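Protein 1 of 2
SEQ + STRUCT:
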Amino acid sequence: TEKEKKQGWTLLFNGKDFTGWRQCNSTGMASNWVIEDEAMKVFTAPGKKPGHGAGGDILYKEKKFKNFELELEWKISKGGNSGIFYLAQEVTSKDKDGNEVLEPIYISAPEFQVLDNANHPDAKLGKDNNRQAASLYDMIPAVPQNAKPFGEWNKAKIMVYKGTVVHGQNDENVLEYHLWTKQWTEMLQASKFSEEKWPLAFELLNNCGGENHEGFIGVQDHGDDVWYRNIRVKVLD
């Protein structure tokens, strides 16, 4: 609306096509994303089983964001899994034979978990429900846990400002933490991204956003059907 424009909000998705978006580590758009009822939808790619994505993570390509508020809505299929990422980088590495490997978006970016809590096994893994919807994946649980069931729309809000991060779900703030601090490093070390378990992820996430503390906004292809709409951002100076 005009009022929202004056408040500084910008739409990242026009509800009609993928203008401004592309596949992570690619110049084109992932083939298993479509527009459905003014939402972007990812579906299980041909030949892939649910839960085993085709690598079709996508990101808003026009700019990186540093201090911002992000708002959007998401809807998940039964047993579905996805994620919203911020401060993301596009990362390549080498395998043992020296071949280039395109790394997934989650290796460099904090994740706002998108999940069907009632039917996906990840909801019962991790620690203290820290893999349920709106959690900082595998690190901090969303409290209260107020996600709606699969097939219903949820509101997501992410605020990043000078290292302070707040996740909101369905009009309630559910967690807060602080990047680039001793607390952040300790949380990483206690997660699946620890230096011993996954040194590349630990290094990238410990300094997420890189030298300028900025990165892409993106959403995940985890192999399940999921919808995103009304994606908007407000830059915070």
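Protein 2 of 2
SEQ + STRUCT:
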Amino acid sequence: FRAGRWWQERTPDEKEGPTNMLVGSLLALMAFLLAVTMGMASDRFDTRRGLVLDEANAIGTTYLRAGFLPEPAATEVRTLLREYVPLRVNVADLDERTANFARSEEIHAKLWAITEELEATEGDSETFALFVESLNETIDLHGARLAAITYARVPETVLLLLILGSALTLGMVGYSAGLTRRRSPITAVVLVIVLGAVITLVVDLDRPRRGFLMVSQQPLLDLIEQIGPPTP
């Protein structure tokens, strides 16, 4: 605003030019960019939420179908799955999350080793095939969740463009007000708050481990109650 007012005082005979048109174009561009970015962040958030439910269902199905297996394989599988489910609950600490994923992959290897041992005697059984199918889905969903948390993010270039574009737009709004010597502090404050809130929401939706909006882990917590806690 002060820069626009200084320029207007220095060149009083010059017309304002297309400043207002430029400001309107920038606001329209920011609205479009905010809508696109919000859609990207929201889609990734919904994907992570859906994967939690899918994984809980897959693990629960595998646990139930483990009853088709002969002993002691059935008990071993269910014991491993009771240990596995708490590892799948998302945590904020990066080191703990990395350790949980590493232990999850160790359990995958143990479960698959049990399955390979049973293949010689149970390979022709349709119920055994159902168990293998659900176990495959459980293992695949581990990779899907890992990719969704680690790689499925709004590109940093887009977020940077969003922040820089907002700063430039707000600057041009103030500059235009300075040229006309008319400004509305309330309008400016509201614009800053709204842009800041939307950008904060976009960034928050794009953070899978912490923030105001977190993917609910309730399906996994409900599954822990159903099958029981890990065996000591």
